[in-house]
Amino acid sequence: MFEWLENHLMEPLGKIAQNRYLQAIRDAFVIFALPVIITGALFLIIANPPTSLDWGIINAWANAIEPIQHQILFPFNLTFGIMALTVAFGVGYSLASRYDGMDSIMAGILSMLAFFMTAFPVVDVTEVAFGEVLNYLGGQGLFVAIILGILTTEAFRFLVEKGVTFEMPAGVPPYVMRTFRALVPFLIILPLVWILAWIVWANFGVTIPQLVLDLFSPLVSASNSYWAALGMILLMLVLWSMGIHGMNVVASVAYPFWMTQLAENAEAVRAGTEATGIVTEPFFHMFTHIGGSGATLGLAVFLLFLAKSSMLKQVGKTAIIPSIFNINEPILFGVPIVLNPLLIIPFVLGPVVIVTINYIVFASGLIPPVIVQPPFTVPLFFGGFIATGGSVMAGLLQIFNALVAAAIYYPFFRKYDNQLLKQ
Questions:
Q1: What is d(CA 166, CA 163) in angstroms, rounded to the nearest whole number?
Q2: Distances (CA, A) of 201 to 195, 211, 324
Q3: DSSP 8-state secondary structure symbol assigned to residue 168
Q4: Which of 172, 305, 330, 351 is the most buried (most CB within 10 A)?
């Protein structure tokens, strides 16, 4: 089985993980967009305190901020509202940095400007309400931001490599040379994007982000289904069992869909409407990968306190602190779980059960939707509490999931521990 997986799965998926475009998309979200998202989400939480707890101090807080709620939401609107603009810059910058000799900053600026143009209707700009455009500069424009980030950067690279630039004589200051080298590509690419935006507006009466969002909406809906979540977690864990970082591979493709759901949830909470996004990045990192990929927090506790073999005890001592912060490489490669037929069973089975529990709980409305993407290192309970804007039940769900995973791991841990003792 392992030989078949190695020959037929590891090589193609390894190539996917190393694909420069997917890496650029991942970096655009994690490095550039995530700080913007977290900052904006904090103001969303402040403006929408968890009154369902019915605590006196929280109710007083809600009453106190009600007259200034729109003012408090101002930073949220102008951070989430430009998420796609940030991603456009990030994709251009990250992709250009993977090519030798490319000006990554100029590539990021070019990508950002090209995307910015497409978000506005091609009419008298003074007649356009900026608030109406924010949706398409934010979560609803992510797909176009990614596509343009790649296309404009590749066009920029092609023009520079073909010498379609102003080359300055020796002795010209580097910053001047840098400006003129980028000038001709800017003069070619930005007008082409403007013409395309104009054609789309003239023929369909919508902006390019609106048109693309309509085309991608079936995929966004499909990515929010239980079967999509199940497929994602299975692929993540099968890859990890082969030693490939499964979350990175899956996230490089799924991140735009996850972030679209997250942005729509945040907007729905802001507007006081129903949020329906379930399958987001925190759905996996906060509520499924408890202790790290494979939900190994309970296993880390077993290794530290219950293991009889000296090797597993030592791994437990090394792994327990990182596991609290959802980092479990010491377990994956120290126990090991990777390429270990016995422990791969609970490693895959536990998260599959947890994903099923999570989906049922979120779909039934027992726990409020995810509106914040905390750093993946936030410990148990606090991650769920923060991700849902202050739901204690979400933190308790994390604890419950950790216990479920621990119960699944225990018999396999005990059997493996006994095997090591006999060696």
A1: 8
A2: 10, 10, 51
A3: P
A4: 351
